[in-house]
Specification:
Distance between the termini of chain A: 55 Å
Strand content of chain A: 25-35%
Largest interface: A-B, 32 and 36 residues
Oligomer: homotrimer
Largest sheet of chain A: 9 strands, mixed
Mean pLDDT of chain A: 91
Number of helices of chain A: 6
Number of strands of chain A: 15
Structural class of chain A: alpha+beta
Low-confidence stretches of chain A: none
Shape of chain A: elongated
């Protein structure tokens, strides 16, 4: 039998004991699980950052991979935990908007509220559902449990608002939605919005008062230190400094306005 | 056959070449081993931090998991390396107190001093026993080697002193034993010590001159920025700031006094 | 069948979405691959650091392990991507000198330029060949693809210059080539260069104006805070502070001169 694939995304910190405990419970329940850490460095309680991360990363996995995502400021309150099937992937997550960007791409094909305590650890702490509910349920799913057993189907998932660029005849006004580990600025402006205005080489991109003429194809054809605009691997407009850090250089962050003329 | 489970805990730094070299030797010896990083971010040479980490994390793994722990300021001296069976788990560690908190829970059922060089790499460096002894021996154990072959049984493991809260009629005086990645303060005061004094909602917790009234059940029911006391997932008293960092806010660290009235 | 072993070394940052996307593509193509992260914390675009890292780490793996290395400032330009067999290991890397230190040990036994788009993802972005070429080709190799199919054999790999110590009757002048996670200074002076001058206990090592008499065998036999010289696990001269950080204490870095008398 193939090893069931599970990924983990949390804000616990990469080397925290919490991650190890989740893996212990998961592997105790399903020793054959193939576990892959996606990120444990989501900023603490930053549901929005995790939502972008999941939407960028999970679609690249094979069908039926189980993605366990625990960024959960409401742990121990009455917030729901849900099992979601969407776009051929499977998810376990708190119902706090964490999956709202995954769901922008396709509607969910199944949503179940985890109510059946049979598949939880027998003792459930108030502060660590990642171990006591998520990891335990994930082990059962890896062993082949039909998700129907987890609880009732529901249809009212929490969502988050995602800023949409405003477009006029003169310009597109968008914003930075994420700063990556290189300091590159990822925006909510996509290639199709931009190219309808004419050749990308003639577009002007403005951020923090700095103007960049032309959207180029890659980092490598420009000189070191140059401020450039390009399309990232998800076809979003990105602002970068060749071999440098655009976020620092422009003093830009999530929410900073980006305009395309 | 099931894949033998091995975990790694070191102070090498997550992305150091040393971790990769250990994995190379382990997988060369036992290609089917399933290796899981618990932490490589133990503060350098900080045996006490690693001891708490191991006691918190390893009990969640299935029986007979092999936990390889290398926080080893005495590498290359005559300090012993030991194989220990305790509470259904198996360990390889330097004999420097690293397992002393695991051993608080249960006495070891077997302790062997690694004297038999047959299972070490043929060349052993003076500075990297993690690769040349630990990883090599771990590979042999994963292949099914009877630990009896590793060396003689011994019974005088090194221990560390662990502060025990002092209890009077008026108060419990304990201390912070660990600061987690969120800045939460974990203490050596446990739920059973505290609740014998009456309802937890009426207890007063004092740390760095700040007083908190009542021990609550989780983070989610309080307001952002509030200083709270609660029980962590190991039923230790914990001091936290909702969506914030208690260690920074209170200027608290390992050893800081915590009093419960 | 044994699981094919793949290692990953990049400058993406450990928890970046880019690493997760590579794993997704690799596991989609070859679900049975056993993937091991070596490092994702190479300093951005720092080909030289990655070259040392790879040469230190990959030889410890079993024969035919596939090492995928993506530190690739030229992504999207006409720089080649190569498949290399060397010293029983297999590599996928950009042809930018990344393998030049591995190749110091042994000449390559096969070098192929990845020209055949058949084994790439059907859509290839300009900025993320790690996912669209490297991970896709790695999956095919894990499934048993004969590397001959990847493209034409070539023989003109890019190299980097590596400083070689200069030796006179009076002294050896070398330099720091890497600072590890403990702040230890690894140099390009090797044990065999040093011992021909007489007993290592009588050598004097100078760095940043500080002199150390004698090269010792390990960290553990000296006092805390002492500045020492020793041989690292690759038999290179190393400068360290016992339980401390030599790089900070000496204000030393890559390229800092080290002299042995």
């Amino acid at each position: 039998m193939e090893q069931p694939l599970v990924t983990l995304t949390t804000d616990f910190g990469r080397d925290s004991s919490y991650v190890g405990q989740m893996k212990g419970v998961l592997l105790s329940g399903c020793p054959g699980a193939s576990i892959h850490d996606l990120s444990h460095s989501i900023r603490p309680q930053h549901v929005r950052e995790a939502a972008i991360f999941l939407a960028d990363t999970t679609p690249w996995f094979s069908a039926d991979t189980l993605h366990v995502a625990v960024v959960d400021p409401g742990v121990g309150t009455s917030r729901r935990i849900v099992y979601v099937e969407c776009d051929r992937q499977r998810y376990l997550a708190p119902d706090n908007g964490l999956l709202s960007r995954v769901l922008l791409k396709a509607p969910p094909t199944r949503v179940i509220s985890l109510k059946n305590r049979k598949y939880w650890r027998s003792e459930v702490s108030n502060t660590f559902h990642g171990r006591d509910i998520f990891a335990s349920v994930a082990a059962h799913l890896c062993l082949g449990l039909d998700p129907t057993g987890l609880g009732p189907e529901v249809d009212d998932l929490q969502t988050l608002d995602w800023a949409i660029p405003t477009t006029t005849d003169q310009q597109i006004v968008g914003e930075v939605i994420c700063v990556d580990s290189f300091g590159n600025l990822l925006t909510n402006i996509t290639v199709d919005q931009l190219v309808v205005r004419g050749p990308e080489s003639e577009r002007v991109v403005e951020c923090q008062g700095r103007r960049i003429t032309g959207v180029c194809n890659n980092y490598g054809n420009r000189t070191v230190g140059e401020l450039i605009a390009l399309f990232d691997s998800h076809l979003r407009l990105e602002i970068a400094v060749v071999n440098g850090n655009a976020a620092q250089q422009l003093d830009a962050r999530e929410g900073t306005t980006v305009i395309v003329y």
